[in-house]
Amino acid sequence: MKNYKLTVLKGDGIGPEIVDEAIKALDKAADKFGFSVEYDYQLLGGAAIDATGVPLPEETVNSCKAADSVILGAVGGPKWDKEPGNNRPEAGLLGIRKALGLYANLRPAVIFAPLRGASPLKPEIIGESLDIMVVRELTGGIYFGDRGTEERDGVKSAFDTERYSVPEIERIARVAFDMAQKRDKRLTSVDKANVLDSSRLWRATVDRIAKEYPEVQVSHLYVDNTAMQLVRDPGQFDVILTSNMFGDILSDEASMISGSIGMLASASLGGSGFGLYEPIHGSAPDIAGQDAANPLATILSIAMLLRYSLDEPEAAKAIEDAVAKALTKARTRDIYTEGCGAKLVGCGEMGDIVASLI
Ligand code: NAD
Ligand code: IPM
Ligand code: MN
Questions:
Q1: Which residues of the chain have pLDDT under 70?
Q2: Ligand located closest to 11 CA
């Protein structure tokens, strides 16, 4: 029997609640499809600061490097907001992405049919179906550029630098083009080339890589226009290729089209089979500990893990099908609407229902 070794980073806030439900789904899929999973629980973020003083302990990095892949909840919260920038929970998250070389973040915004009424967009804007793949560069750009604060003549200032090298743009562009080639063959590269040098280099590099993919139809949009187009006519998008910060912002926006940020999964990859799987949302401190969080983004991240890293596509499909079925029976608060026909449940019950349907 195949045995997979996974490192699990529950993190902070709702992190432990949603990860527990995701593990339930994975264990059920393992039973059903005949493989086993071994978990190594490690600390990241605020939980790691409390226990060790730093958001990314060396032991966590070593465990991740020795694993087949990583499952992550979310990090951060008001308790640690006063930490210096390089010791915040979020610095731990950026650190683990960088340490593992995970430069490609796939964020699929799909709408499950039962949730059409939960989307804030009108049915005629959503159209028949919606399936957008945001490909976000994850280890470069303004998140990792030179930064600092300084004081001159009594005036304080701070700066962060957006910088991209040609090889960084080339490798993320290839991920997005490969993805588009397997999907509807439409790729929109999003930048701010009317203002930023880094975006002009991005655009020129994407155009050069595009020549390797003659079947893929490429367009370029400015990020401000993209933000508007996503709610005006989301069906125009297939694959969106963009930088670290623009991808962060646009994927939160795209998540609402699918009904809730609690639905959007992600895979962070580095060109090998290894990946880190996490929902795109944060630690939701406002609902932590209330059994109110939607665990489906994390459960759907497990489906991505099974598909992209563990090569268990049938188990991945079984989880996605179970989620689709579960949505007709039960919903957490964020996706519950009056008259939807499903009952209002907490995080734990939602996870139980999904697991029972796998
Ligand atoms: P957030 O995503 O945590 O929450 C935004 C809103 O969405 C909140 O109202 C929250 O209740 C709701 N929400 C999020 N996930 C939900 C879920 N699964 N089910 C139901 N509702 C959900 O963003 P924020 O409030 O801006 O950030 C809170 C903390 O999380 C900050 O410390 C931030 O840095 C951190 N954060 C971490 C990650 C990560 O670990 N990947 C991602 C984003 C934010
Ligand atoms: C995300 C989060 C992180 C990011 C933060 C917490 C560092 O918002 O995963 O989307 O901006 O990448
Ligand atoms: Mn984000």
A1: none
A2: 1
* Residue pLDDT, tens place only, 151-165: 999 999 999 999 999
Is the pTM value of this prediction over 0.80? yes
Residues contacting residue 18 through CB under 8 Å, at least 6 positions apart: 73, 74, 279, 293, 294, 295, 297, 298, 347
- What CATH number is associated with residue 192? 3.40.718.10
Domain count, the chain: 2
Does the beta carbon of 74 sit less than 6 angstroms from any atom of ligand 1? yes
CB environment 133-148: b (16+ within 10 A), e (fewer): bbbbbbbbbbbbeeee
Considering the domain architecture, whether residues 252 and 272 belong to the same structural domain is answered as no
Domain for residue 112, yes or no? no
Residue 196 lies in a domain: yes
- Is 89 annotated as contributing to ligand binding? yes
pLDDT at 128: 84
Q: Decide if 301 is inside a domain.
A: yes
Query: Which are the catalytic amino acids?
Result: 143, 192, 224, 248, 252
